[in-house]
Amino acid sequence: MHKKIISRYSGFSCRFKILLNLTVFLLFIMQIHCKSKLQSEIEKLIETRDFIGLAVLCSEKSPEEFKEQCEIALKESIYEIESILSEKSESPFTKLIIEKGKALKIQKLLTVNTALGIRYRLIWEESVMEVSAE
Predict the structure, then answer these.
(1) Where a domain ends, among 33, 48, 63?
(2) Do the beta carbons of residue 85 and residue 27 sit within 8 Å?
(3) Does pLDDT of 92 surpass 90?
(4) How far is Cα 23 from Cα 36, in angstroms, rounded to an integer?
(5) Could you tell me the pTM of the whole model?
(6) Which domain holds residue 42?
(7) Does residue 95 contact residue 129 with C-beta atoms inside 8 Å?
(8) What is the tally of structural domains in the chain?
(9) Would you say residue 9 has pLDDT above 70?
(10) DSSP 1
(11) What are the residues facing 131 on neighbouring strands?
(12) Distance CA 125, CA 128 (A)
């Protein structure tokens, strides 16, 4: 009787180990796939010099292996936001008109990056009007 119980548990243990190994393997494959997808997306944004898009992605995902590129993208995005807003000083009573795609990217960046949102969102909303033509 005692041997039956042990053999029943050892069969369960073997199936459990196989299931656990399979689960770990699948998680590993999924991690590699997601990492390569993120890496290819980041490389595409770097190639197209879409710093705002890269800054949005970095703010959402925080990839450590692309820390340097993310810092550069963030600095370039800040420079672009400040250069757009500096045009406001030339005509203080009108809203700036910029492309809708760029405006939406910057608004998304200001949403996902809390520090930039605190610094620029209010000024951005009061100063910029987007147009649909790109």
Answers:
(1) 48
(2) no
(3) no
(4) 20
(5) 0.67
(6) 1-48
(7) yes
(8) 2
(9) no
(10) -
(11) 99
(12) 6
